[in-house]
Every structure is written in structure tokens, then in C-alpha cells.
Automatic annotation (TrEMBL):
NAD in keyword set: yes
Gene3D superfamilies associated with the record: NAD(P)-binding Rossmann-like Domain (3.40.50.720)
D-isomer specific 2-hydroxyacid dehydrogenase NAD-binding domain ranges (all copies): 107-293
Organism the protein comes from: Flavobacterium zubiriense
Keywords: NAD, Oxidoreductase
InterPro entries assigned: D-iso_2-hydroxyacid_DH_PdxB (IPR050418), D-isomer_2_OHA_DH_cat_dom (IPR006139), D-isomer_DH_NAD-bd (IPR006140), NAD(P)-bd_dom_sf (IPR036291)
This protein's name: D-2-hydroxyacid dehydrogenase
Length: 316
């Protein structure tokens, strides 16, 4: 059987699939040509990340598809229910990239509280002529330790983020409509661990209490954070979104940054990908990455081998 990994797959995933008797195709097929390519090459499994969309049109046009796989967590680029109604297996890898995303959250948080995103822009330009001015400009940093991190969505990635926050000495609060409470186990290099329980609270109270906010929710029909929510937050709050574009109203975010209500934002995802708004890209108080939350070698290895394991289990 043939597997089309249209958005790529790790070498370990390819090897595992080949060992299981599958032929893996890593040719990047344009979105409008995906259906034709699947049919012409008798592809049984299509694997995607966030770029390729597998909607009703492709599902209807490709009766030979047996599995649609998403390398990652969110499956908003796949018509999951429709695929299942046609007898197609839909799989993903919810646990494989949690730590990678959580680490990126803290890269943005640390960048924001110590102005790294802005100093890294200005030091190459003015570091040799205005060193003292820059030193003064970036001298009022903030420590994360002792501050309150509000996690919106305490699923796998939210829990991985909570572990790192606890390790840094932060207080963790959470809001989640589906999880009544969760035990967070922080494991250390020598085998020791500590466990603490987080009981989610209302979203409104989280916005009021948190010094920093990080979002870990799937794609929404509407915004979670708008002008109204920003108004309830602490002055000087920091906010990070490594989940999905469209969760934060970006126009309202710019206004909140300009007014000082929000001290900084960290964004890995955007409403208009792959062409984010220029106002976001040029803002001095936004730390930016191009949707790379799961893009570590370790995460991609885990994703590839987990997808391979599921495919082999289903089709062997």
C-alpha cells in the first residue's frame, strides 16, 4: 500500500512504515492536485500536517483512501466526521508534540519579559553605537518566578506547559470547559517527582488573576479574546498564542499593546496564514514565530513513528 506524506514525515516514520510493508511518497503535491495524485498513484493513506486540507471534495473524489492522518493535534484542516461517515479512519498524534509546543510558549514568555525579540532586532543595528541607550531601554525586565500563569485549555499541551511553569516557580491556574481537574506531575532527571492538582476556574476569573496568559484550544467559531476580555485583564499582562489563529482578535490585540494594557504578546499562529498582518509583524512588542510549535526533531520523530504504528495496526 502507498502512503502520501504530503506535508512531510520524519525519516524514522518512513523507516517504520517501510518496515511494515508500505511505500512512502514524500512528493509535495499542490492542494488542487491532491485528489488526482491520490487516484493516479493508488494512494491508500494520506498524511498531512497543517498545510494540506482534506475536505469533502477530496474524500468524495478518492474512494481508495483508507486512512487520513494528521501529524499533530488539531484536525481542523480535515473534515473528520464526514471522513468517518465514509468508513475512513482518521488518526492524529495528540501526545507527540506537547513538550515542543510548551517549550515554545516559554521561549515567547522569556523573550517577552526580557525584551529579547526587540533587542535582537536592534542590537545588530545600533549595538555598536547606542549600547548604553539600548541597555537602558531593556533594563526593566520581569521575572516569571512567583507570577501567575493562566492556561486556557488544560489538555495535553496545557499540562506540559503547566509542568514547565511549576518548574520555574510560577503559580498555575487554568480554565477548561471539559476537564474538572487534573493532576500535574513534574518529573525530575533523577527519577523524583512532585504532583499537584489544578482545578480549572472560570475564564473570566482567569483573565482577571493571571499575570501571563497562554492559549491551548482548538480552532473556534469565534474569538476567545477580544477588546472586552483585554479590558478585564491586569495592566501589563503578557499573552501567548501557540494554538490556533483566530483565537485572539488581532486588531484588538494591537490596540491593547499600543495602550499598554498588554505588555507583550508571543504569536506562533495567525488569522491569515501564510500572510500575517503587517501590523503584527512590525510591532515591537510582539515575539513572532512562523507556526513552528511542533517543529523540533524530537517531536517530528515521535509524530512519524506514532503515525506509522497506528497505520500498521489498522491496515496490517
Amino acid at each position: 500500500m502507498k502512503v502520501l506524506a504530503n506535508d512531510g514525515i520524519s525519516k524514522s516514520g518512513i523507516l517504520a512504515l517501510e518496515k511494515g510493508g508500505f511505500e512512502v511518497i514524500t512528493t509535495k503535491v499542490a492542494q488542487e492536485q491532491v485528489a488526482n495524485y491520490i487516484n493516479e498513484n493508488n494512494v491508500s493513506v494520506i498524511l498531512v500536517r497543517s498545510a494540506t486540507k482534506v475536505r469533502k471534495d477530496i474524500i468524495d473524489a478518492c474512494p481508495g483512501i483508507k486512512i487520513i492522518g494528521r501529524g499533530g493535534v488539531g484536525m481542523d484542516n480535515i473534515d473528520v466526521d464526514y471522513a468517518k461517515s465514509k468508513g475512513i479512519h482518521v488518526i492524529n498524534t495528540p501526545a507527540s508534540s506537547s513538550e515542543s509546543v510548551a517549550e515554545l510558549v516559554f521561549a515567547h514568555l522569556l523573550s517577552g519579559v526580557r525584551f529579547l525579540h526587540d533587542s535582537n532586532r536592534n542590537m545588530p543595528l545600533e549595538g555598536d553605537t547606542k549600547f548604553d541607550n539600548l541597555k537602558k531601554a531593556y533594563a526593566n525586565g520581569t521575572e516569571l518566578r512567583g507570577k501567575t500563569l493562566g492556561i486556557v485549555g488544560i489538555g495535553r499541551i496545557g499540562q506540559a506547559t503547566a509542568k514547565m511553569a511549576l518548574g520555574l516557580g510560577m503559580k498555575v491556574i487554568a480554565a477548561d470547559s471539559f476537564i474538572p481537574q487534573v493532576d500535574i506531575k513534574v518529573e525530575f532527571f533523577d527519577g523524583q517527582s512532585i504532583t499537584t492538582t489544578v482545578v480549572p476556574q472560570s475564564l473570566e476569573s482567569l483573565f482577571q488573576e493571571a499575570d501571563f496568559i497562554t492559549l491551548h484550544v482548538p480552532a473556534q467559531n469565534g474569538y476567545i479574546v477580544t477588546e472586552k476580555e483585554f479590558a478585564t485583564m491586569k495592566d501589563g499582562v503578557g499573552i501567548v498564542n501557540c494554538a490556533r489563529g483566530g483565537v485572539i482578535n488581532e486588531v484588538d490585540l494591537i490596540n491593547a499593546l499600543d495602550s499598554g494594557k498588554v505588555a507583550f504578546a508571543g504569536l506562533d499562529v495567525f488569522e491569515n496564514e501564510p500572510t500575517p498582518a503587517t501590523q503584527l509583524l512590525m510591532h515591537p512588542n510582539i515575539s513572532l514565530t512562523p507556526h513552528i510549535g511542533a517543529a523540533t526533531g524530537e517531536a517530528q520523530d515521535r509524530i512519524g513513528t506514532e503515525l506509522a504504528s497506528q497505520i500498521i495496526s489498522l491496515l496490517s
